[in-house]
Amino acid sequence: MVRGRVSLWVICVLRVALATVYFQEEFLDGERWRNRWVQSTNDSRFGHFRISSGKFYGHIEKDKGLQTTQNSRFYAISASFKPFSNKGKTLVIQYTVKHEQKMDCGGGYIKVFPSDLDQKNMNGNSQYYIMFGPDICGFDIKKVHVILYFKNQYHSNKKSIRCKVDGFTHLYTLILKPDLSYEVKIDGQSIESGSIEYDWNLTSLRKMEKTSAESRGWDQGEGDKAQDWEKHFLDAGASKPSEWNSELDGDWLQKPPFQDGLKAEGIDKDLWPQRKMKPANYLTQYDLSEFENIGAVGLELWQVRSGTIFDNFLITDDEEYAEKFGKATWGETKGPEKEMDAIQAKEEVKRAREEDEELLVGKFHRHNHFSRFHRQGEL
Length: 379
What we know:
- Component of an EIF2 complex at least composed of CELF1/CUGBP1, CALR, CALR3, EIF2S1, EIF2S2, HSP90B1 and HSPA5.
- This is Calreticulin-3.
- Its main location: endoplasmic reticulum.
- It comes from Mesocricetus auratus (Golden hamster).
- Helices cover 30% and strands 28% of the residues.
- The protein is an alpha+beta fold.
- The chain has a domain at 21-203 and 288-330: Jelly Rolls.
- Strands 1, 3, 4, 6, 12, 13, 14 and 16 form an eight-stranded antiparallel beta sheet that branches. Strands 2, 5, 7, 8, 9, 10, 11 and 15 form an eight-stranded antiparallel beta sheet that branches.
- Strand 9 (130-137) and strand 10 (141-150) form a beta hairpin.
- It is elongated.
- The chain contains seven helices and 16 strands.
- The termini are far apart.
- The chain has helices at residues 2-17, 196-199, 203-221, 223-234, 246-249, 319-328, 330-378; strands at 21-25, 37-39, 49-52, 65-68, 73-84, 91-98, 105-107, 110-114, 130-137, 141-150, 153-156, 169-176, 181-186, 189-195, 294-303, 309-316.
């Protein structure tokens, strides 16, 4: 029994060891993060980031992350890594976000970019592959974006996925699988899953592509055959070819004779006898979630009130590794973070009570002083 448990533990360790980690960032080395992250200079009005664990935290060092610092600003910053393709592999994107300022309107999402991103010039028009994470504005917008770039267009998940709206740190995870399934997790709990093809309204694109593929097959595969029949039509006296099959090729039509360059009427070049289409062996695995040269991750967003902290970035091909990484980071500090916030809240209540008491005492002393002065005046 003990040997069985040890073997299972070894298998789990080996599996995690075999995980490919494309990008991982925890901001644990002080200001050296500036060597890895590039602030866009596309607009001088872009807001600036700093490293901070916030006003309350679970661990002052482990909870340090990129924090927005200026109100009513756009932000644009990114980090690059060795390009890779997720074709045939699971893709896991994960990070933590903390709206310590109690977000009223602004983004908390991240974007995954192709490797040719111009980091210094990154802006809202920079092409990205994936946009994922919370977006809050007023009472109406409190959602998790999951946007995929496909066929030169951006496509949003049609399901409404609600995000967290409190001031604590939350773990967001997106999993895209080769079988075209996906899953969205918040704080390690699955909140939405399904089919990429159907939940992104991409079935119509599949049909369009299928029709286009069949059309190309007709143009290429039947082009020579059409030219052969054209030869017969050009000769008004030609007889029906011996290989002509009326059931497959339709009735034999002769092109009326014409002279002096006059075009024969009544026959359109496009009116070729229709072949009987065989069912196309269409792609069962479609490239709806495959990206060839993933090479950067970044924040490109707007915030009315600053203070959001982004941390614990991870891009990998292994769900188990992502789960363990989430537990080792957010999982270790989420409890102490809430405890510190509760202590601060109690201290704020205590200070407010003391300030009220001081005001009351001050009013009492002033009232007594005025009463004594008034009585002395009467005397």
